[in-house]
Amino acid sequence: MYSERLELLIDGVFRAGSEGAGEDLIDPATGDVLGRLPHASKADLDEALASSARGFAVWKTMTAIQRFDIMDKAADLIAQRKGEIARTLTLENGKPLGEATGEVQFSADVVRWYAEEGKRAYGRIVPARIPGVRQMVFKEPIGPVAAFAAWNFPASNVIRKIAGALGAGCSIIIKPAEETPGTAIAFGRCFQEAGLPAGVLNIVFGIPADVSSYLLTSPIPKKVSLTGSTPVGKLLQKLAADTLKRCTMELGGHSPVIVHADADLDRALDAVVAAKFRNAGQVCTSPTRFYVHDSLYKPFIEGFAERTRRIKIGHGLEDGVQMGPMIASRRLDVMDGFIADAKADGAEIVTGGERIGNNGYFYAPTLLKNVPDSARIMTEEPFGPVAPTTTFSTFDEVIERANSLPYGLASFVFTRNGTLARNTEMALEAGMVGVNHTVISTAETPFGGVNESGYGSESGIEGLEAFQRTKFVSEI
User: Fold this and answer.
1) pTM higher than 0.90
2) pLDDT tens per residue, range 431-455
3) 250 is known as an active-site residue
4) Same structural domain for residues 304 and 240?
5) What is each CA distance from 458 to 52, 71, 156, 443, 446, in whole angstroms?
6) Residue 416 is part of a domain; what is its CATH number?
7) Is residue 395 part of a domain?
8) Catalytic residue chosen out of the listed positions 250, 381, 429, 458
């Protein structure tokens, strides 16, 4: 069923690791072994670093139109192979095929957008104070990039980094998650077949701490981009500090959802239930703390529970499945721990709250009510299909509670009052705010958080600028 060949991509060649090390790739829906993933040795990483430097020297000197042509061809190939790549994604990640297909299509869109935006890496002329002087500001590619991507979005997490770097004129070494390697490898084949010069894109795998520490101690990469947890982000930032590599950190979140008294309840419920259980809740921008006005709490709980019980759970390749498994058995233990703690703190299970079946890593979509702020699930990102809910009475109260954590990635607000919406969105400490809907990620808009959810943006013009440096020239 799983057709993608698991290989490293180094200096334009797909191959095995030089020392034969590796690990099994597991289907989270069945526990079956899908294939054997090779690990890169230190010698392999040295080759990837050297080829990235050589690739950068070639890629940065090509015109934006030349880079566009190659990236546009790669986007076409990704779109043409969308069904095949989506199937690979579902088998290794578990999410339903419809979600996987949309994610792969999004990836093709991202590549096209960055290919186009690379033509607009504008500088500027600054009027001089001295006669005869011309002052020019240039935007240059920053250099080879080291990037690390999480498993929850095997396509979009990877492609934002690849396309952003290539659009700016950088080469990149990327280490996708070992749990979900095949999607990135399939993208690599598309770029190579589109004519990408050797060394511009390298794909490696291995023990995460070993690979990241080895790449980041090298002076060759000038930029680090991570999608991962806050603890990992802090560690990589420390490693990058020794060589002063610039960083973009897209880290964890714990998104509050504020449902004001005047909200359109059905619209809010349709939006948040779908968003909460997308990818089994394993989404950094997933709504995770539900603050509902006292006057709406009872019908909100009833409507949430009704929608939750209708969700069809199963293998992502099965027809009609809306939620697949979690990525690994360890995540099931985490969900059990969150729910046990919440119950001990006075919360009640409305629906769900248990593992499903004996094969794969399935957990029932779970709704908790009357969850106190002291429960762990209200302060630690659950990253799973558990929705904790509570009530609020006043605007100032809910804003204080929503902003009480160190995270600031996404927030969501539901109200029919334009003034209340604006007041809420401006008061929230978050890099992204969705008002009356939850779609906050597109190719052309910045994606990123504040505080301990990281810094810097992917996508949008900000995502291109993340891979550029500024040069000022003054000539007479």
Assistant:
1) yes
2) 999 999 999 999 999 999 999 999 9
3) yes
4) no
5) 21, 18, 11, 9, 6
6) 3.40.309.10
7) yes
8) 250
